[in-house]
Write a structure and sequence with these properties.
The complex is a heterodimer of chains A (470) and B (453). With 470 residues, chain A is an alpha+beta fold. Chain A has a single domain, classed as Outer membrane efflux proteins (OEP), CATH 1.20.1600.10. Chain A has twelve helices and six strands. A four-stranded antiparallel beta sheet of chain A has the order 3-4-5-6. In chain A, β5 and β6 form a beta hairpin. Chain B has 453 residues and is of the alpha+beta class. In chain B, 12% of the residues lie in helices and 30% in strands. Chain B contains eight helices and 24 strands. In chain B, the strands form five sheets. In chain B, strands 11, 12, 14, 16, 17, 18 and 20 form a seven-stranded mixed beta sheet that branches. Chain B has a five-stranded mixed beta sheet with strand order 1-5-10-9-7. In chain B, strands 2, 3, 4, 6 and 8 form a five-stranded mixed beta sheet that branches. Classes of the chains: A alpha+beta (470), B alpha+beta (453). The interface between A and B is large, with 33 and 42 residues.
Chain lengths: 470, 453
């Protein structure tokens, strides 16, 4: 994050046809992201580049569409989904347009008042048009001028704060996209396993029918197996619904049609052997937090507003000017001074409010630092636990369940167990694979949280009390 | 019969633990190799898959030493089981002696559990009866007890623990006692076979001694077919087979093919000739002895087995539901997408499964350390037998006790497919196979009927 705010707003206002893509190459997961941009977000996103290796790329609309089309040509990996989302999502662009609104308001506040011109024309007598007098004066609001620097600083700080906020929004958005992508792929994978489980159940049902027709199963035995198979189908229905729901959620974030011709990989990757480094997570999360940067800038802005207000309190409505008096061909000039008599400090309560806002910002900063630290601890724990569980599934449970099927097949061949016990073992194996997908999903979600935190985000655990006050 | 490999094992065990008992004494080596003795004087008993001993004589007392200990026992190739036995073997050695002799038996307990030994069927002094807690204190692990008593009469008896019987007998602790009469007997071949049963789940290597009903491994001298040694006899031999049943739950109707025999004695003593009658199947209750005698006058390979049908199957399981009559190809079509290696058991029964490749370890993977339920290559195909099954091999000339191989049948004495000429000659009309019988509709109770009536 930049340590100093810009004094001047950027000159080049955002124009819709012009598109800037900021490509974030995340070091850990090499995710890439591109956004419409011309709002001075570079310093913040480039700041995250220290850990995400960001690159900035300018694109126009045609290029953007072409890039989206290229990305959609293949199954969308997480990185590709992120790029599509940042290029396509109108909601995000709407959020970012808020920066322009805030910039306009702040710039307006920093604008100098125009000088005032007063002029008077007198005719001495109705019969003598030669006798006239012209008096003109120009006055500047000195108080406004004295407070100018503070107001400019306040405006600049406010603009930077809004950019930091926008950068945080982008981080939150990328986190949202990552989660949605993981949820969707996991849901598809679960669906595939549920289909296999259903296939096992239907195989048992079909086998039961064959045995029943042969006279080797009684009615009650048949219907018990058929009922079990029918119940197993409920899980398939649920999995189908979940997969569709997750696709809807991802499509919304990517601004793509739900039934469009786009796809994602069939399964989540295996967990890596080692966890990413987590020792410096808390420190880096605090260091890179756009929210903390925003609060810092907001505090600086409030300080500038206090200075400005103080000038207005001390020197209320001080005006300086020049007056010219031209009468009967003679010109007289002299200075003018005007000021309000400061019987009442009309800025006092405004300053009280600003100071209260400063106190509030201090609390919010402390609260957010605590929140980041808590998030770091939670993510560390989740990452470790989910990695342990996913690894346990892949290295222990699944091989054992597979071995159980092999051994049960041997026992079946030895005629010590029946066919339905064998099919039951296979179904249990498939259920374990389905459970493994849940564990895998939890791991990659935790991994996404880790990336999010590392880039300066926090966990989406609802608004804190400090945020509510804000 | 003890083969060379087993004999080496036994000898090693004898040297290690009981060298004096087995290395001293009359005819020890001969009985240990179950050498053929025609009309022995006095009798010599052969323990197929085991060994016999006369012990040794010390001051007119016949002395034996039994060491109760864990053993690793091969029931047949591919099925090794952790068991308990005596002197490195199960069953323990057959103890041979003569009526009227005093015997002294030392019992050393090398088991992890206390034990005691009961001399089943012998009229011993009460304190020598071996019932733990009732007639003697327990033999703790590491202790050696002695038993001494006189053998009042000839006969076939058994010994087994009378302490935690389900565990210890269920683990294989048993042995035979053969008391010969003083006078020579007109017996050419004398065998002793202990019938027993174990619960060894397919894939396991230790009997389940908590099993009370469901025993799947039925043995003769702790071996299952095809691990059982054949009983090799010469044509016209007077043959005696001493059958001892130490099974936990089962009685065994033992059937001999090709010959009729007489039941000549029980553990209670000889049956008077006038009370004997010819049989081909003898029911041996658990805890009982039956001696059968016959003249082996019919050459061939004769099955000798329990007629409880599941007792002649190895590691019998209970696959449920049964597969007979089920369309195997239809089931394969449904299941193989899920389990590619799956092959449905035969729709024509276990033999069908057998001929379809089941129990062929190369074609169908089987549990580790398990034995096929029923299959042994025979001269005409797989022999669909296992468990409590052996073969009495009657030959015109017996050279030694080695397995003489399969019987060579005289020409035109083997059953085969009938020719059309034969059928026509004898007026046999083969009917067409019956059409499949439809299943009866299940009776459905209609509540309306009740109202009508």
């Amino acid at each position: 994050m930049p340590s100093s705010a810009r004094l001047l707003p950027p000159k080049d206002l955002w124009k819709p046809p012009a598109v800037l893509a900021v490509v974030l190459l995340t070091a850990a997961c090499t995710s890439q992201a591109a956004v419409h941009h011309d709002r001075g977000l570079d310093p913040y996103l480039q700041g995250t580049a220290e850990i995400e290796e960001a690159q900035t790329v300018w694109l126009d609309d045609d290029e953007r569409r072409a890039q989206v089309d290229d990305l959609l040509a293949e199954p969308l990996g997480m990185d590709q989904a992120l790029q599509v989302a940042l290029l396509n999502n109108a909601g995000l662009q709407a959020d970012l347009a808020g920066i322009d609104i805030r910039q306009g308001i702040l710039r307006q506040d920093a604008t100098l008042a125009n000088p005032e011109l007063h002029s008077e024309f007198y005719v001495i007598g109705p019969d003598s048009w030669d006798l006239y007098r012209v008096e003109a004066s120009v006055e500047f609001d000195l108080t406004d001028l004295l407070a100018r620097a503070s107001r400019l600083r306040a405006a600049s700080d406010g603009i930077e704060a809004s950019r930091a906020q926008a950068a945080g929004r982008i981080l939150d958005f990328t986190d949202e996209v990552r989660r949605a992508w993981i949820d969707y792929v996991a849901a598809r994978q679960s669906l595939e396993h549920q289909q296999q489980i259903q296939q096992a159940s239907e195989a048992a049902a079909e086998t039961a029918r064959i045995y029943h027709e042969s006279g080797n199963l009684a009615d009650d035995e048949l219907y018990q197996i058929l009922a079990f198979s029918a119940e197993a189908r409920q899980a398939l229905f649920h999995a189908e619904d979940t997969a569709e729901d997750r696709r809807n959620a991802l499509a919304l974030l990517l601004s793509l049609p739900v039934d469009g011709n786009w796809s994602a990989p069939a399964q989540l990757a295996q967990p890596p052997e080692d966890l990413p480094p987590i020792q410096q997570l808390e420190e880096q999360a605090v260091e890179h937090s756009p929210r903390l940067e925003q609060l810092e800038l907001e505090g600086q802005r409030q300080q500038a507003l206090v200075t400005s207000s103080r000038w207005q309190g001390l020197v209320p409505a001080l005006r300086l000017g020049v007056i010219a008096d031209w009468r009967a061909g003679e010109l007289e000039m002299g200075p003018t001074v005007g000021m309000a008599i400061p019987l009442f400090d009309r800025q006092r309560y405004e300053r009280d409010a600003i100071r209260a806002r400063q106190v509030q910002l201090d609390f919010q900063r402390d609260h957010h630092v605590h929140r980041v630290r808590t998030s770091s601890a939670r993510v560390t724990r989740r990452l470790r636990q989910s990695h342990r569980l996913a690894t346990h599934y892949s290295e222990e449970i699944l091989p054992l369940r597979e071995r159980v099927v092999e051994e049960m097949l041997r026992q079946y061949n030895a005629m010590t167990i029946g066919i339905f016990e064998l099919l039951d073992a296979r179904r249990t194996h498939l259920e374990a694979r389905s459970d493994y997908v849940d564990a895998l999903r939890d791991f990659w979600i935790a991994r996404a949280e880790y990336e999010h935190l590392l880039a300066g985000g926090t966990l989406d655990d609802g608004p804190g009390v400090g945020d509510a006050a804000h | 019969m003890v083969n060379r490999r087993d004999f080496l094992k036994i000898s090693a065990a004898a040297v290690a633990g009981t060298s004096l008992s087995f290395r001293v004494g009359r005819a020890e080596a001969e009985t240990g190799t179950s050498a053929r003795r025609r009309n022995p004087n006095p009798g010599q008993v052969v323990t197929p898959n085991g060994f016999s001993t006369f012990g040794r004589e010390v001051d007119g007392v016949r002395v034996f030493h039994l060491v109760a200990e864990p053993v690793m026992h091969t029931m047949t190739d591919g099925l090794d089981v952790h068991m308990w036995g005596f002197n490195g073997h199960t069953p323990g050695p057959t103890l041979e002696a003569f009526a009227g002799e005093t015997i002294r038996i030392y019992v050393t307990n090398h088991l992890p559990a206390p034990t005691s030994i009961h001399w089943h069927g012998i009229e011993v002094p009460n304190g020598m009866d071996g019932v733990n807690g009732l007639t003697q204190p327990i033999i703790e692990p590491g202790e050696t007890f002695w038993y001494e008593f006189e053998l009042p009469r000839r006969g076939t008896f058994m010994y087994h623990p009378h302490s935690d019987e389900m565990t210890q007998i269920g683990m294989g602790m048993m042995g035979a006692i053969v008391v010969h009469p003083r006078q020579p007997e007109d017996i050419d071949r004398d065998f002793v076979i202990i019938l027993s049963e174990f619960a060894v789940r397919s894939g396991r290597s230790r009997p389940d001694t908590t099993e009370m009903v469901d025993f799947n491994t039925l043995t003769m001298n702790s071996k299952v077919f095809p691990g059982t040694d054949p009983l090799v006899v010469q044509r016209d031999d007077q043959v005696r087979i001493r059958l001892i049943n130490v099974s936990q739950m089962s009685h065994h109707p033992i059937h001999l093919h090709g010959h009729a025999f007489h039941i000549t004695a029980t553990e209670g003593g000889p049956i008077p000739e006038g009370a004997q009658w010819p049989e081909t199947t003898v029911l041996v209750p658990t805890g009982a002895v039956r001696e059968i005698t016959f003249i082996a006058d019919n050459p061939g390979d004769w099955a000798f087995h329990c007629h409880m049908l599941h007792h002649i199957m190895n590691q019998m399981g209970h696959p449920d539901p049964p597969t007979v009559g089920v369309d195997a190809s239809a089931v394969n079509e449904v299941v193989q997408p899920l389990i590619p290696e799956f092959m449905h058991m035969g729709e024509a029964g276990m033999a069908g499964a057998l001929h379809n490749g089941h129990h062929d370890h190369a074609a169908m993977p089987m549990p580790r350390n398990s034995v096929a339920m029923q299959t042994t290559p025979g001269p005409f195909g797989p022999i669909e037998m296992g468990g409590m099954f052996t073969i009495v091999k009657v030959r015109d000339q017996v050279i030694d006790d080695e397995d003489p191989g399969w019987y060579e049948h005289p020409d035109d004495t083997v059953a085969r497919a009938a020719t059309d000429q034969q059928l026509e000659r004898d007026g046999i009309e083969v009917p067409e196979p019956p059409e499949e019988v439809d299943e009866p509709e299940p009776h459905r109770h209609d509540p309306q009927d009740q109202h009508d009536h």
